[in-house]
Design goal:
This is XRE family transcriptional regulator. This protein is α+β, with helices and mostly antiparallel strands. The chain is built from six helices and nine strands, in the order H-H-H-H-H-H-E-E-E-E-E-E-E-E-E. Strand 5 and strand 6 form a beta hairpin.
Length: 206
């Protein structure tokens, strides 16, 4: 293990966070987002504060981004985690596919307010992004800005109770078993109003 890896691990332990797991084909997805916006590596470097050499290594799968690096990408590129984790667009579509995710086997991606578990990680070219989220936030003020990403989102509460804040509507309380479908480009945020962290299942369209 390199000194840098040791240092990153120590920082994560000190911060009380779980180790970050690299999302499936994140390098390809980052390059796709950059090219779609006609950005150079220097443009992305200035937006995120990450060195061009680091961005190049991420895009070419030569290094695994740390949790801090992923946060800088999300904030600097003005995208949400599900948007960054979307598999790169590849054509043509493959028919007759399936992808099983056993309980607890999804890819985990912690943030300060949520802990996402990405499901069906092995299936490329998905038109939907399913993920389970542990809602750790307890107050809307924990969010520095609205969460928003392309497409639409279906959300169902699996455990506990949440309050859904949206940009154009009054806050809405959802209990276990309640569900909602909404435009995810509209600013939104979830907070748990249970004694314990709430758990929700979300499916986002691309």
């Amino acid at each position: 293990m390199t000194a840098t890896t040791d240092q990153d691990a120590a920082l994560r332990i000190a911060a009380g966070r779980k180790p970050f797991v690299e999302p499936l084909r994140l390098g390809e997805r980052l390059k796709e987002i950059r090219l779609a916006n006609q950005w150079t590596l220097e443009d992305v470097s200035q937006r995120t504060g990450l060195a061009r050499s680091t961005l190049s290594k991420i895009e070419n799968d030569q290094t695994s981004p740390t949790f801090t690096a992923v946060q800088k990408l999300i904030n600097g590129l003005d995208i949400d985690l599900p948007q960054l984790l979307s598999p790169p667009r590849v054509q043509p579509r493959t028919m007759g596919r399936r992808d099983l995710t056993r309980r607890g086997d999804g890819e985990r991606h912690p943030t300060p307010t949520y802990e996402h578990e990405l499901l069906s990680c092995e299936l490329a070219q998905k038109r939907m992004i399913p993920f389970k989220t542990i809602v750790r936030a307890r107050d809307f003020n924990e969010f520095s800005e609205w969460v928003r990403h392309d497409g639409e989102e279906f959300l169902m509460v699996l455990d506990g109770e949440i309050r859904l804040y949206t940009e154009y509507y009054e806050p809405l309380t959802l209990a276990c078993g309640d569900s909602i479908y909404f435009d995810s480009a509209m600013g939104h945020a979830l907070v748990s109003i249970s004694n314990d962290d709430a758990v929700v299942l979300s499916v986002c369209t691309r």
